[in-house]
Amino acid sequence: MDMRRRMSRLVTGLALVTLVAVAGGACKARDQLTVRSYAMQGKVLAVDVQGKQATIQHGDIPGFMGAMTMAYPIKDDEALARLKKGDEIKAVVVVDDTKGLWLEHIQILPPAPSAAPAK
Ligand SMILES: [Cu+2]
Question: pTM of whole model > 0.90?
Answer without folding.
Answer: no
